[in-house]
Design goal:
The structure holds two protein chains of two kinds.
Chain A (H helix, E strand, L loop, with lengths): L8 H27 L2 H4 L13 H7 L4 H4 L14 H8 L10 H9 L19 H6 L4 H5 L16 H9 L22 H11 L10 H4 L2
Helix pairs in contact in A: 5-6
Chain B lengths: L38 H5 L1 E2 L2 E2 L9 H19 L8 H4 L11 H5 L2 H10 L13 H18 L8 H10 L2
Antiparallel strand pairs in B: 1-2
Classes of the chains: A mainly alpha, B mainly alpha.
């Protein structure tokens, strides 16, 4: 009976075992890399909008408070996207002939809301509440970054669960005095951890509860 | 799971004609606890007469809340001290009058409440952004600003006066 396999087959078998291992590793690495890539996370990727609204100009340049437009951030889960009326509070008088503001004027004239593209969108199975965060000393910039330097809006954090847990496991790392919550330029002091531990206590943050599943998945 | 068949606030919807998931309130809707029957407090006026007195006690807490809200919603135009020289007028918006002119110093508190609620001249209404209690707090703070810009050294309590004089040395 002739040999079923040629002598070469031994080598081919060994190489293919190695190839499978390599392929699986590479595949895993590729999945992981793409999961964390800006393409997937949209981190540092400016999102195009119908009007190129600049936080850099409105907050950084003019010094308009966050809450002037995001009015419900202190009392609701949703910070609020301003109605066209809020834009027109100033732009009924300023830059009234600018073509880039045409969609805003049209929105007012036709009484149809502006269609902004969402920058920070949590999955629907996550419960998130803005008001509790700002009330307990988590500042806007901790999650949204230095928006006073953003001519267009982008995310600076993945909003992945790992990122949420980083703070929920030890809020002392990020908590700040309440009066600094809306200050985008606030930076953690050298003694952040010590101050943070004190603030966690003062603001009655129940740190143990923060990692309960039902905290965010209700 | 990631995107569940429900609508988030302000999301678009194909179901409704105007394309928005959030429904506008039916005109005349009164939310629970918002009957707002107290005319002086919710209208700032009885009939057509602006109220002259604050319809609630003005405490330190109210003034501090007023200062915070004023600095969010008002100071962009009216300026931090109420002189009408905020950042937005500096960029070309028509200047609002200073709070320290005679007409506005004499104006009843109800006038300020009314202006915040309904707007005035080129100023838009802030009713959707500032709640009634906050409108009164802002009004109280405007009164404090007016006092601050029209005070004499003699008006200060002696201990505050000593502090101030020490600063100027």
């Amino acid at each position: 009976m002739p040999q079923l396999f040629h002598r070469r087959s031994n080598t081919i078998a060994r190489v293919s075992i190695l190839a499978v291992v390599l392929l699986v590793t590479a595949g895993g690495w590729l999945l992981h890399a793409s999961f964390w890539s800006p393409y997937m996370t949209k981190v540092n990727v400016p999102i195009e909008q119908p009007v190129p609204f600049s936080h850099e100009h409105h907050y950084g340049g003019l010094g308009i408070d966050c809450r002037y437009c995001h009015t419900s951030v202190e009392k609701s889960s949703f910070a609020g996207i301003p109605p066209t009326e809020t834009c027109m509070t100033c732009h009924s008088q300023l830059y009234t002939d600018q073509p880039i503001l045409a969609p805003v004027r049209e929105s007012l004239a036709t009484d149809t809301p502006m269609k902004w593209n969402r920058v920070h969108d949590l999955p629907d199975f996550v419960f998130f509440n803005h008001s509790i965060h700002v009330t307990k000393g988590i500042g806007c910039s901790t999650c949204h970054g230095q928006v006073q330097k953003m001519p267009l809006m982008w995310k600076v954090n993945t909003l992945y669960m790992k990122w949420c847990l980083d703070c929920h496991r030890d809020p002392a790392k990020y908590i700040r005095p309440r009066e600094e919550v809306f200050n985008m330029s606030w930076l953690p002091p050298i003694n952040q951890l010590a101050q943070g531990r004190k603030l966690v206590k003062d603001y009655h943050v129940n740190a143990k509860q923060l990692t309960d599943c039902s905290m965010c998945h209700r | 799971m990631y995107s569940q068949p429900r609508s988030d606030p302000l999301e678009p919807s194909k179901f409704f004609k105007n394309g928005a998931a959030s429904r506008p309130l039916v005109p005349g809707t009164v939310a629970r606890g918002h009957l707002d029957a107290d005319q002086a407090f919710y209208q700032g006026a009885i009939g057509t007469n602006f109220v002259e007195e604050f319809p609630m006690p003005v405490t330190r807490q109210v003034l501090e809340r007023g200062r915070e809200r004023y600095n969010i919603y008002c100071s962009v135009c009216h300026g931090a001290i109420g002189d009408g020289n905020g950042m937005i007028p500096q960029r070309g918006y028509p200047h609002p009058p200073s709070y320290h002119i005679d007409r506005l110093r004499q104006a009843p508190v109800g006038h300020y409440y009314d202006v915040i609620t309904h707007g005035y001249g080129v100023m838009y209404s802030y009713a959707s952004r500032v709640e009634p209690a906050d409108r009164w707090a802002i009004t109280a703070y405007i009164r404090a600003l007016q006092l601050s810009q029209n005070s004499r050294l003699d008006d200060l309590p002696p201990n505050e006066r000593v502090k101030l004089e020490a600063q100027n040395k």
